[in-house]
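Residues determine shape. We examine one folded chain.
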Amino acid sequence: MSRTTIRSIHSRYEEGVPLAMLTAYDATFARLVERGGVDMILVGDSAGDNQLGYDSTIPVTMDQAVSNTAAVVRGTEQALVIGDMPFGSYGASIERSVENATRFLKEAGAGGVKLETAPGGERTVELVERLTEIGIPVQGHIGLTPQRRHELGGAVVQGRAGPASEYADRLVQTASRLVEAGVFSLVIEATTEGVAKRVSEAVDVPTIGIGAGRVTDGQVLVVNDVLGLGEQEYSLAKRYADLDSIVETAVAEFVSDVRQGRFPDATNAYDPIDADR
């Protein structure tokens, strides 16, 4: 089967089919995520604190992001793969930002890029316009933008003042500007449900929620949170498995077998001999 395209995403959106997206950072998990039936795989900068051992997304480099994205593309055949532009890779200049975005398509084979936009983010809107003009599909990202964690003071839910607030007005205006600039979809992260509803109703592209409630056109989660990889749980996510326990149990059984001489046995040896250790 061929890859899911932007046109396919919009067709499903117009038909009222809720869209499903998960993150992945390597070929193995990407293959499994795709088999589960997702429409899109986001190679998120969430790799920072879910794969690379950092305490946030901030330290993730372009080389790491492009390498992860290439691995996900190699491990999949159908899902639309989106590379997440890391902190510092865009915004300093249009030229440098375009060069970095281009790497995701030319070097990694991604189908598009995602970038975060602060309320009223004129420079980002201008960049989206330039990228889409030259053929780079862009997924927008508004609401809680983790790359601005130092400015925001942490992972703070956005829009507490309500859907009629000045913040909600600015977010709707920003979302509309991003759509005018050419984004094919829009991630809304960690906002109150009323604010997410206002945004979704104001734009004519799919909105993908993460901690934005039940009113968006699709949902995205970090794959580690879905699979129970990692001790921390988040109220915006739902655990569908407990891989921490499964992995720890399997490793403990392996260690025990090695200690007790139960592994390897003759079935794990090539041309086994009569060996008595």
